[in-house]
């Protein structure tokens, strides 16, 4: 029996090649898109999930009640972790964490290394496999851990225990012994590094050993198995009351209101498995997996459209097999046998499409990875659980999409089938509902494409308050002291054509090629209340090189010898100080040092565009290091000028990699997620439109086949081609109109929610959704008209002869 089902199924599929081809084409496109999108989404969802202790790992953060509302942050003071472990129960392991860069100084092996400062417990907590050596290596301050890839690059072998490394770290030269070799961190690790060093070597460690007012690192903890995050939060109240007593008193003095628990400062724990999806927005913590789930959702929507097409096309094709169904029933075929016969044909179509989809996705995998700049591979779908889910999903989709047409056909009456009549009157509701769903999905995706494109274009072209097109940022990663490199670079470029000025600071704008970001904040009392500001240490000519606009006062000048005790602030900082005329006002830092405000800059976006502009203060502190040089160039011959900067750098630091880039490139790198979202939704919209066209084409074939005689009669009595075309297409246009009425509010709500993540965003306008609806109508008309016009032009004699 089974052999007979398969035999007849293959024969019928081969007999009607056009329908089979359209079905296989649509489904294989859908399977390909879904597999590639699923690969990307599951890769994103798998971040940091490989750690064996992930359920017990947390990052510590605090929520502080400010006069303007709650603020959250993850930066902690140096004595915080030891005190927390000593005073609170249920903490099994704890480690501080700072990410930094170091330069290997051995001649001929100069290499910029990604370095982390951590405590000895770090490798007890996280599942970074040790190949050689022990997990407790960092208990010896003179020993370090390196990855296999780093060992191979530096020593030409992975068995490098006992080798020495001469590193330049923040201007300090230190020699270490390799105490352990680690397997390279998985690509799904949020903690990536080449070298791990004991935290006691971190910048300003000794100076900050007993200071609770200087915060510069993260803290991770592992709880005992029977402990929960809420236990730590409750038991930490006395800890914060003791160690942050001065902070809490200042908050009360400044008018802050306690939270619902009656506390002014609370410690909280963020599950480590959520860190990749966490966003600290200053006032709140948001953990959202909406991005990968959105990508999965688009893949499912594409499969949904393909399934709808299959159902409609199967019913359209069934009109040609009515007499076959009637004959089978006359000869005694049961409904069950007919159902399995038609369902088996569906299974074959789905199987062929799935195999093609897998093959095409494997062929496109490399191009997909390059387009979306992702290390995701199809192997991320190879876990037993995922394979089970995918197989189960395939069975369900096949049963639903293939089973419904099979059920409809198997229930046809014998006489109607023998007469060749497929009476779908009253059942068009199902077909029409499916088409409305199909076009609603397409309209939502088209709307998303238009809105995301406009938001991305808005962010790229927004005036950020500084010159991003004529400034080159160069990370200072050479052997010399960074300030010395800035002076040498300034001398090398002096008088060169196209070079306007050179300056430096301790932070970049946007995201440079080195991939590092760094922010420093400080708080102090001003006129009896607490204020906070971002800090930026700069060199001379910084505002002029960056094109920052001076609102009042002056910037730093070599003519003023006392500018080491001067600061320049932005308008947001002036508002924080509550000073209408802040120039010449003084602030006191470190309890005794007075700084004079000499100028006010207009606000500029020194952070990402999903944050409002915060207070920032520029200092000329000679005892703080500089990490980035900035070169302003003329708008003419910019490519040639960029090469001149690179040549100058290579003369200064011949063994250090040149990582210079224009600031507009740096800014554009911060839009990686937005670019990816736009590309994915645009691709999804295009696929949805293609699949919808295939489905519409099939339905138009069904309608034309059912109304062939009617078309002939109307032509005989004088109906024109245009009248017949309008008659056949108006019902479809109505369905698209209904889809627009449903989809437009849904799209508006979804997109307005997404835009809330951005402090600077476009306004949703009605024309965007009208354009999406009109585009859907246009596509529908073009697709349907191809078949209806052909039917309207047909000789009425041939139409009237149709049985």
TrEMBL record:
The keyword Coiled coil does not apply. Residues 298-412, 685-791 form the ABC3 transporter permease C-terminal domain. It is a multi-pass membrane protein. It holds the Pfam family FtsX. The chain crosses the membrane at residues 21-43, 293-317, 338-364, 384-409, 430-452, 680-704, 732-751, 766-786. It is found in: Cell membrane. One of its GO terms (cellular component) is plasma membrane. Its main location: membrane. Keywords: Cell membrane, Membrane, Transmembrane, Transmembrane helix. One of its GO terms (molecular function) is transmembrane transporter activity. Residues 20-234, 441-641 form the MacB-like periplasmic core domain. PANTHER family: ABC-TYPE MACROLIDE FAMILY EXPORT SYSTEM PERMEASE COMPONENT 2, MEMBRANE COMPONENT OF TRANSPORTER-RELATED. This is ABC-type antimicrobial peptide transport system permease subunit. It comes from Leeuwenhoekiella aestuarii.
């Amino acid at each position: 029996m089974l052999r007979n089902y398969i035999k007849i199924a293959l024969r019928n599929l081969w007999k009607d090649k056009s329908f089979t081809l359209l079905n296989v084409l649509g489904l294989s496109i859908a399977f390909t898109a879904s597999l590639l999108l699923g690969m990307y989404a599951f890769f994103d969802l798998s971040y940091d999930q490989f750690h064996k202790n992930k359920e017990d790992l947390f990052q510590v953060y605090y929520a502080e009640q400010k006069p303007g509302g709650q603020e959250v942050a993850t930066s902690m003071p140096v004595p915080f972790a030891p005190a927390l472990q000593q005073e609170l129960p249920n903490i099994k392991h704890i480690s501080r964490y700072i990410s930094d860069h170091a330069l290997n100084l051995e001649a001929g092996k100069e290499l910029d290394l990604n370095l982390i400062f951590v405590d000895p417990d770090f490798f007890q907590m996280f599942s970074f496999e040790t190949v050689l050596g022990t997990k407790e290596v960092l208990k010896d301050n003179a020993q370090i851990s390196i990855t296999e890839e780093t060992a191979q690059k530096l020593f030409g072998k992975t068995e490098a225990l006992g080798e020495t490394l001469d590193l330049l770290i923040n201007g300090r030269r230190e020699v270490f012994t390799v105490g352990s070799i680690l397997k390279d961190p998985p690509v799904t690790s949020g903690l990536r590094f080449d070298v791990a060093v004991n935290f006691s070597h971190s910048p300003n460690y000794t100076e900050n050993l007993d200071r609770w007012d200087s915060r510069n690192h993260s803290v991770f903890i592992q709880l005992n198995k029977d402990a929960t995050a809420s236990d730590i939060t409750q038991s930490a109240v006395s800890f914060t009351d003791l160690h942050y007593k001065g902070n809490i008193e200042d908050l009360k003095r400044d008018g802050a209101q306690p939270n619902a628990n009656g506390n002014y400062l609370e410690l909280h724990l963020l599950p480590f498995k959520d860190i990749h999806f966490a966003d600290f927005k200053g006032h709140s913590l948001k953990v959202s997996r909406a991005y990968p789930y959105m990508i999965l959702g688009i893949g499912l929507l594409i499969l949904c459209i393909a399934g709808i097409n299959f159902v409609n096309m199967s019913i359209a094709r069934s009109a040609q097999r009515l007499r076959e169904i009637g004959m089978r029933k006359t000869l005694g075929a049961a409904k069950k046998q007919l159902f399995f016969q038609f369902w088996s044909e569906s299974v074959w179509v789905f199987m062929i499409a799935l195999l093609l989809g897998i093959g095409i996705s494997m062929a496109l995998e490399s191009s997909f990875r390059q387009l979306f700049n992702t290390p995701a591979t199809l192997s991320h779908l190879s876990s037993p659980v995922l394979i089970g889910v995918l197989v189960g999903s395939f069975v369900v989709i096949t049963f639903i999409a293939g089973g419904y047409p099979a059920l409809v056909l198997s229930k046809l009456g014998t006489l109607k089938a023998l007469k060749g009549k497929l009476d779908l009157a009253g059942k068009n509701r199902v077909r029409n509902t499916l088409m409305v769903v199909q076009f609603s999905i397409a309209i939502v995706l088209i709307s998303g494409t238009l809105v995301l494109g406009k938001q991305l274009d808005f962010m790229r072209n927004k005036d950020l308050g500084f010159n991003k097109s004529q400034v080159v940022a160069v990370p200072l990663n050479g052997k010399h002291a960074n300030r010395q490199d800035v002076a040498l670079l300034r001398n090398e470029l002096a008088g060169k054509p196209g070079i306007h000025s050179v300056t430096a600071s301790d932070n970049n704008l946007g995201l440079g090629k080195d991939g590092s970001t760094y922010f420093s904040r400080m708080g102090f009392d001003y006129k009896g209340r607490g204020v906070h500001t971002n800090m930026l240490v700069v060199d001379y000519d910084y505002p002029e090189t960056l094109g920052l606009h001076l609102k009042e006062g002056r910037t730093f000048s070599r003519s003023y010898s006392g500018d080491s005790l001067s600061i320049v602030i932005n308008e947001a900082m002036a508002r924080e100080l509550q000073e209408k005329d802040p120039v010449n006002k003084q602030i006191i830092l470190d309890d005794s040092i007075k700084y004079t405000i000499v100028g006010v800059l207009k606000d500029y976006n020194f952070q990402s565009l999903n944050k409002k502009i915060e207070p920032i203060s520029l200092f000329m502190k000679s005892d703080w290091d500089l990490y980035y040089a900035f070169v302003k160039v003329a708008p003419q011959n910019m490519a040639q000028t960029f090469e001149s900067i690179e040549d100058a750098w290579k003369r200064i630091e011949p063994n250090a990699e040149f990582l210079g880039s224009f600031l507009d490139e740096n800014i554009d790198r911060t839009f990686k997620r937005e670019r990816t979202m736009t590309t994915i939704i645009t691709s999804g919209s295009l696929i949805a439109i293609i699949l919808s066209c295939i489905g519409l084409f099939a339905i138009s074939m069904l309608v034309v086949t059912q109304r062939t005689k009617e078309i002939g009669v109307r032509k005989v009595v004088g109906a024109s081609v245009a009248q017949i075309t309008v008659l056949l297409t108006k019902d479809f246009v109505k369905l698209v109109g209904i889809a627009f009425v449903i989809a437009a509010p849904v799209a508006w709500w979804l997109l307005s929610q997404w835009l809330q993540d951005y402090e600077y965003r476009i306004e949703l306008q009605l024309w965007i959704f009208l354009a999406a609806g009109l585009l859907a109508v246009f596509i529908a008309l073009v697709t349907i008209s191809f078949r209806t016009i052909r039917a309207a032009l047909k000789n009425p004699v041939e139409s009237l002869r149709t049985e």
